[in-house]
Design a protein that fits this description.
Length: 292
């Protein structure tokens, strides 16, 4: 059975504390990288890796599944860092400057070990957050293999987003529903990232982006996954901010004209009422029974 983390004071503290421990460990490794060579840094990395894994297993044996999962997540992050350091030490690091240069096999190797660690962690801890390593490993390797940056990488990212949405919806209908959240999370991020890459210049672009944000909110109502509403709200606010800056600023050719300071409260007031309207629409959808 896969448990679903619930947002409570204790879960907030557990997540936050685990992240602080992770950041402190990474900060220590960053400092050590300035004091020692790459080989010694690899050895130093084994210490936090062993400590975090031991803590995760200790919590797991006690049946404390939430802190066990949080520390399993931090362990996999340090595991990825370890393999990144090994790749650099062996001189196998990528030679290109872009994120998707095509055939970055050394990064594929790191992604493979990240995938393997996450798969093993899911079998032991059954912690939904670990799914994100599976998702991003597959996404990077495939996208890097079939593209070398530019528009084609954006297209592949969009297709992956749609695929992850379909997988998330399928997961939502089965016993592994808690895993589905992270597929929705990745889908919303990748679809939104692709659209933002295409639509960020003209006024028409921003209108399309705002329309897509509204569609996100409607998807949230249809899937009952609030992450789509969060991304949709962010898109609406981004478009409103863009238009607010455009309409408030004084034209360059008339520098003595007073800026329109009444525009921001008007725009965001309208946006606020519009978001409330969308909330009512989604609430109506949430009150209806699930269809099989």
């Amino acid at each position: 059975m896969v448990r679903k983390p619930i947002w409570t004071s204790s879960s907030f503290l557990l997540y936050t504390g685990g992240i602080v421990v992770l950041l402190s460990g990474l900060g220590a490794l960053g400092y050590l990288s300035t004091q020692y060579g790459q080989g010694a840094l690899v050895a130093w990395t084994l210490i936090p890796l062993a400590v975090l894994l031991a803590v995760a297993l200790a919590f797991h044996r006690r049946g404390a599944w939430l802190p066990a999962g949080v520390f399993a997540f931090t362990t996999i992050v340090v595991w990825i860092v370890l393999w990144g350091e090994l790749v650099d030490w062996w001189g196998w690091g990528p030679k290109g400057n872009g994120f998707f240069d095509g055939f970055n096999w050394s990064i594929w190797l790191v992604a493979l070990f990240a995938y393997a660690a996450a798969a093993a962690g899911l079998r032991v801890f059954r912690f939904p957050l670990l799914v994100i390593f599976l998702i991003e490993s597959v996404y990077y390797v495939v996208t890097d293999f079939v593209s070398n940056g530019g528009t084609w990488s954006v297209v592949v990212t969009l297709l992956f987003g749609l695929a992850f949405l379909a997988i998330g919806v399928a997961r939502d209908r089965g016993p592994k529903r808690p895993y589905g959240f992270w597929y929705h999370f990745a889908a919303a991020a990748q679809i939104g990232g692709a659209l933002l890459d295409w639509w960020h210049s003209s006024e028409t672009d921003w209108a399309l982006l705002a329309t897509a944000a509204v569609v996100y909110v409607l998807v949230a109502g249809a899937t009952r996954r609030s992450i789509w509403a969060v991304y949709g709200f962010a898109g609406i606010v981004a478009a409103a901010t863009h238009w607010t800056l455009e309409w408030t600023a004084t034209p360059f050719f008339n520098a003595f004209q007073t800026p329109r300071f009444w525009v921001p409260p008007l725009v965001f007031g309208v946006v606020g009422f519009f978001v409330v309207l969308l909330g009512l629409v989604v609430a109506r959808r949430e009150r209806t029974p699930h269809s099989a």
